[in-house]
Amino acid sequence: MSEEDHVIVTTGLTKEYPFGETTIKAINGIDFAIKRGDYATIVGPSGSGKTTFLNLIGSIDTPTSGEIYFNGKKISEMTGNEVRDLRRTKVGFVFQAFNLLEILTASENIALPMIINGTPAREREDRVQELLEIIGMPDRGNHFPMELSGGQRQRVAIARALANKPEVILLDEPTGQLDSNTSREIMDYLIKINEEENVTLIVVTHEDTIATQAKRPLTIIDGKIYEGILESFLSIKAIEEGTL
Ligand code: ADP
Ligand code: MG
């Protein structure tokens, strides 16, 4: 596996948590690589390690052992400044609960990562308007989150994740709280963003329709990753949902 052709590579990635006298391997030796501009989805039962995996590759958590390479460089060998830059500008995160600041408008929420990054005001305003257009909300910048629908709020969260033109966006069940039509709409925007901005997308989802439409569907079970949507996961899911 080449570290250069891929935006993210992991080797032997492991994350353990103490559990009573023993430990839980939340991530159990994952070797993974994703190409620049790819679009991957991850399904898996709850507790299988999906969130932990995203947090590790997005460098907001550190592994117990193993390596993560970002653009060919080991995160473990980066300086504090390099890791900070990675977190602020190279990776964008979108979570299930929208995490918008209620006291800021949509535009101000989108601008936040650029303010933190010291982007000049003029450039920031242009980028905010560009992003509002990308998410189909050119006239909604002055609205506060409480004045927006769930789908619109999530589109603002996606715009905010895109603010600093990241290379990768990691989304943890971004449509988990949305109805299926709104969820479809959000995914259409994401696919457009993946194609037009050449951003690498990794989306954790519990929705089969979303998972199957990715260029690269993946499954995480018991802290290990597999190509495709595993039959054994579909059985576990049917049991969890009481349909089996
Ligand atoms: P998923 O997102 O697939 O539902 P997680 O990555 O959140 O799964 O969790 C994977 C496993 O790691 C679970 O067994 C969970 O209980 C455990 N875990 C996650 N975070 C912590 C933590 N901070 N401390 C202890 N155990 C944790
Ligand atoms: Mg999770």
Account of the protein in words:
By secondary structure, the protein is α/β, with parallel strands linked by helices. It has one domain: P-loop containing nucleotide triphosphate hydrolases (Rossmann fold, 3-Layer(aba) Sandwich). Helices cover 37% and strands 27% of the residues. The chain has eight helices and ten strands. It has helices at 50-57, 80-90, 106-116, 121-134, 150-162, 180-196, 208-213, 231-240, and strands spanning 6-19, 22-35, 39-43, 65-70, 73-74, 91-94, 168-172, 200-204, 216-221, 224-227. The strands form two sheets. It has a six-stranded mixed sheet, sandwiched between helices. Strands 2-1-4-5 form a four-stranded antiparallel sheet. A hairpin with a 2-residue loop joins strand 1 (6-19) and strand 2 (22-35). The longest helix is centred in the C-terminal third of the chain and has 17 residues, at 180-196. It is globular, with a radius of gyration of 18 Å. The model has no long low-confidence stretch (mean pLDDT 92). Adenosine-5'-diphosphate (ADP) is lined by residues 17, 24, 26, 44, 46-52. Magnesium ion is lined by residues 50-51, 172.
